[in-house]
Write a structure and sequence with these properties.
434 residues, alpha+beta, seven-stranded mixed β-sheet, four-stranded antiparallel β-sheet, 11 strands, rod-shaped
Length: 434
Amino acid sequence: MMHVAFLLLIVFTDGASSTKVCSYQDVVDYLNLTTDNGAFKLTRPVLDYKHSTMVELDILLYAILAVIEKTQTFVPFIWITMMWNNERISWDPVQFCGITHISVPREMLWRPDLFIYEMIQKDDSPHNPYMYVSYDGTITFEEDVKVVSTCKMDVYKFPFDTQRCNITIGSAIHCVNEMRLLPFSNSSRATQFSREVMKSQGEWEFLQLSITSYNFTFNDRQWENLIYTFTMKRRPLLHVINFLLPILFFLSLDLASYFIADHRGEKLGFKVTVLLAISVLLLILNDILPSMSNKTPLIATYCIVIFALMLLSLLETILVTYLMEKDSVSREELRLRDKREKVKIDNCNAACDGEKQHELLPVAEEVQPRESHVLLLILEELKELQTTLNLHFCCRQEVGKSGHWAAKINRAFFIFYVTTVSLFLTLIFIEWNT
């Protein structure tokens, strides 16, 4: 029994000792991957220089950090994956316990010299320090990049606009004969994956990521680029609440001011206050929109036209106030004239009464001359009274004419104002929705 146990122990011990132990370092030593080995990192990894290096590129949108219309800048956070073949690297996984992939520092191997044409600021996000190496020589390199790029934006329909920003990727020194760029995913797959991994969009709604290939010739050499187009639609609710609706509210207040009495000063001060409020909103709009644009944005037209209508309304109020003030002055002058004429008539009546008392004197020979004198005085007073009545009638006609024209101008301008505002708002909202 002891012999059987001893034999079994010997068998199991030999089997355990025959199991091979492998490590990633064994593969690295087999490939002679060191930081001093220039064969892996100095030149393009091909055994024959006529062979082109096929680089498969995949980009996914992870977040939309910023879209700045004022500076025409687009800031996305993207995931970049590059795959290519290194013809100098290969090993048999069977000899290394089935190891098919290893990770090595990025400084040990050659990488494609790809760059983004639209990038205007150096990436300050953390870099991936490793890359994956497969047993058949396939190199996979992944990196997260914060891209600060230029983007030609069309803000004509702001804030109901849709923007398309490009990220163009190409090689700096390798032409088509040396390196080819191929998209790993098509447009629909890249769009679907981007929607699945996206974490932040802000005020923008991501719609589509399209991929196109573009070749151009420079210095008798052909170069290949991949263009990734990000299509985004703005969520306009914030701008509608903070900008468009307040302007409509101020416009409604300006329309409501026509029900304020014209002979008071509150109407003019109210319109000036509303006009100043619109001016403040125009200053805010100036900080949002870019200084240069091919076409005037609709929101700028919207604000300027409403501002012009309110300015015209203010001028009309000044005109009506002037006519009403003129009417008031004419009424005051008429009242003073009536008062003076009344005093003259009272004096005339007193004089006539005095003359009648002298007529009662017993001197008969003086009756006829005194009556003639009184009749002449009465005739003169009647002529002056007729002149006063004619002047009074003309003044009343002039006063009534001024008040009539003020009311007529006010009514006509109100109809014009309401019609113009309704037509303009209808046209501007139709243009925004098309």
